[in-house]
Amino acid sequence: IQIKISLFKMSLTDSCPNSPNSAVISNEKSKRYDRQLRLWGDHGQAALELSHVCLINATALGTEILKSLVQPGIGGFTIIDWESVTEEDVGNNFFLTVDQIGQNRGQAATNLILELNPDVNGKCIDEQLTSILASPDASGMFKRFNIVIANGLNEKLLSQLSSYLWDLSIPLIICRSYGLVGHIRIQIKEHCVIESHPDSSLDDLRLDRPFPGLVKYMNEQNIETMDKATFTHTPQLVFLYKALERWRQDKGDGLPMSRMEKAEFKANLEESLRKKLSSYSNGEYSDAENIDECLKAVNTALVPTKIPSNIVELFSDEACQKLETPSKFWIMVRALKDFVNKEGMKALPVRGSLPDMHSDSERYVSLQNTYRHQATLDADAVYKHVLRILDERGWSHNLVTEADVRFFSKNAHALRLQRGTSYAAEIALKTDVQTLGCLLEDPDSDAVFYVLLRAADRFETEYGSYPGSLEVDVDVGRLKCVLVRLLSEWGLSSVSIKDEYIHEFCRYGASEIHSVAAFVGGCAAQEVIKIVTHQYVPVDNTIIYNAMHQTILSLKM
Amino acid sequence: MCIFRIGRHEIDVEDITNFTVKSVSKRAKLVTKHKTFESIHQDLGLVVCGLDSVVARRWMNSMLVSLYVDPPNKQIPLIDGGTEGFKGNARIIIPGKSACIECTLNLYPPQVNFPLCTIAQTPRLPEHCIEYVRMMQWPAETPFGKDIDGDNPEHIQWIFEKALERGSQYGISGITYRLTQGVVKNIIPAVASTNAVIAAACATEVFKLVSGCAPIMNNYMVFNDADGIYAYTYEQEKKKDCMACSLESQIITLREESTLRELIDYLIESPVYQMRSPGVTMVTAEGRNKTLYMKTLREHTEANLSKSLKDLGVREGTEVNVTDVTSLLPCILKIYFDSPMTS
């Protein structure tokens, strides 16, 4: 009899292993934030609650971003907004009301946003951004922010802000909702992710290079002398291991690699297993779940243990080699590298997790403990390297704890590093446009909207208004000229943008449609959460949202 | 034109006929509260759904499809969105024109089965321990004297503690209160941002559809922002023999000796049909209506379950009518039999 049960894929025991900070969350919060805690754990929530974001301009997009940050419990926000609420604002922003027309927009929005979550702090600064940037305590103020979100700024201001925050190494998210198009640009110098939560990973089984504990476990399993019950409840890894042992006696070290070799291996394995099974019932054929599982697993379980190439790249990264600043992440990467070259023998620490498989409880738990024990031994070795590295530099042992290292080792296969460029550099045409050029070979690519947004910004710099915002027809011609010039500066003169897109852009008149802003806002808010929690992987570094086709184009500028 | 948004609570199919429209925010108007969907459809321009169950979606879908396929032959678009953690989807269904919910029924992820013997005899995972307590220990010990209420912290605490005991018996670690609650309530993680994105996508489609300012999406969007941000819309094609929106009759081929019970089990378990509790009737050779099995007439029809279909009068090409909560209209199945040698 089968019981139907729905099991959400992320069991909390796997996706959020023993948190290094062992954050303790109150009962009440545990209930309130239950659904999101299952995604980023108590430690992620703690990081979120310690964060303070700065939003520039409480437009529809701005408030939508804050909404999706305040609801999950961000520590606090500061809105910088020097505009007053207009009738137009009330028409597309749920957080501004008719009776607030004429008031400072940021302040008006702050009150309603705060209603969403009493635990969040929020305030507004009614001052021009240029004067804030010019004031002597500007850097002190901005340094209190974990991240700045800017929207509704013209290119000149954006460039100024971008350079300023780049120099201070404060992450900046630039975003806009423009007619039926959206744009998000992440500006971050270096972002390290230990907990990337990959959707799927190959299991770390080490059948090709079993560690001593695994060898001992396997040697204790004697298939020949098993009775039927024991045989049909043997974890399939045992079958694979023994078969591999036999294969190696013939062919030497290594694994069946070619298609033919694997097929042959699988066929032999099946034959010997079925023979053994039928020997219990006088040659009669019967089924066994663990045999089925075993045969299905052959292809994925017999993959050679390998360090992913992007992790190898981390080892030769300058930050790892030089290790001049006390960065927790790079100290652990360096220790990982040293481990790999010594105790690990060119392999990462054993991950320690074992997929479920048909088996009796005792042998499964024992096998799982074998993997866990080796994972602990490996993590301990990495930690010893960490201590040595800290001592060599005279750095405090408090920088990296044992729990940090255990956590890091378990996630070592899925580390992600991102390095970015400043938006100011992008505006100044100093970033690489090769990818853009390739995308534009398709005249209907969403990259067209990226180009048009940039052209619209140029247009505003030259004419003081956005195309189509005052007059549509005249602006079409003007936008086209700006566009052609921009493409030529990029070295993409051969690219031509269809007239219909230029018309469409003028039709938009830089208007902000609420539902488009809400979409972009939800996306941008989640990017903020990824960055402050260091979990999951942020966009690297640009997306264009097309609300007509409901598609997103990612590109790196 | 009226736009209705059905609330984001767990609505079972029976409830949907008595739904209330809730305001989306303080400033949106509470529209109306109606007894039956049928009484308001003449005012409907389109329907937007934010439902929490597949069953309710199927019901809504079959309602709108039938309004198109049968009189009043009105084409009411359905915009449907769903989320799960960092993943989401939004789709637009123009009855008769684009793929409907039923067309893509087999896209809904299959449920994970834990074999009973694993739970009872060879638990290995913390989930097995929890399920053991939920399915076996609770009914046996009936603490609190009633059924499990997933929202009652005392119930969850009891299950959690018993699961811990079972876990320690077998050396299984990793049982937490949160995991216990997740398994018992079948909790799906959720976050404000994904919900905002999908809701916004649906709203944009409504806006485009109603105003005609831009083409509507065509027709199924998939969204995932766990790694970067991914969003892609593809054209989901109609299923030629879709149970809800195609006018073709469904053909089922069974073994010669198939019993009525086997047919019903198939309709429940098959990813194509995924019925809940189908009732089966047929028209006999003499032209009379005969109920083969109906839950509401269980005493009278239970005996038929173990009989073979042939014994019940089903021949090659006989059409049987199947009714179920998952569809407004009965489904017509044409039954054929395999020769004994084929499976």
TrEMBL record, chain A:
Pfam families from the UniProt entry: ThiF
Keyword Nucleotide-binding: no
GO molecular function annotations of the record: NEDD8 activating enzyme activity
Gene3D superfamilies to which the protein is assigned, alphabetical: NAD(P)-binding Rossmann-like Domain
GO biological processes: protein neddylation
Residue ranges of every copy of the THIF-type NAD/FAD binding fold domain listed in the record: 33-554
GO CC annotation, single: cytoplasm
Pathway the protein contributes to: Protein modification; protein neddylation
Keywords, ordered alphabetically: Ubl conjugation pathway
PANTHER family: NEDD8-ACTIVATING ENZYME E1 REGULATORY SUBUNIT, UBIQUITIN-ACTIVATING ENZYME E1
Entry's family note: Belongs to the ubiquitin-activating E1 family. ULA1 subfamily.
Protein name per its UniProtKB record: NEDD8-activating enzyme E1 regulatory subunit
Organism per entry: Artemia franciscana
